[in-house]
Amino acid sequence: MSTQITQLINDRGNAVANHFVIYKDGDRYLQSYQSIVAKIETPFKAVILGNDWDYSRTTLKHLRAFLGDALGFVSSTAELRKAIRNGDIEVDNQLAI
User: 70: part of which helix (H) or strand (E)?
Assistant: First the structure.
């Protein structure tokens, strides 16, 4: 399959600098600058977060928008942390495309 890369679009409909959504083999990735921040695996929409998922408030804001767009709901940062603790969301420090 081919890889498609688009710029992340914010809630105002504007392209977000240095943030990209990458589609590859049916999976969806969020890249923030040079880091892969998240992966949503198909077909079950499993979420895997990269090492830098909570690097900054801005990264968290864009991550939450990315997850909301892909999954249909937006989790708070506290909910994300709880899901990680519960094992519902994996953190992979070596997450790559």
Answer: helix 57-71
**pLDDT tens-digit series, residues 70-95:** 888 777 899 999 989 999 899 999 99
The answer to whether residue 42 scores a pLDDT higher than 90 is no
pTM of the model: 0.91
Let me know: does 26 contact 2? Beta carbons within 8 Å: no
For residue 78, give both structure tokens: 């506290």
For the chain, domain boundaries: 3-92
Q: How many residues does the chain have?
A: 97
| Cβ-based neighbour number of residue 86 at 10 Å | 8
Phi and psi dihedrals of 81, rounded to 5? -60, -40
Whole-number Å distance between alpha carbons of 25 and 77 = 28
Instruction: Please give the single-letter amino acid code of residue 79.
Output: E
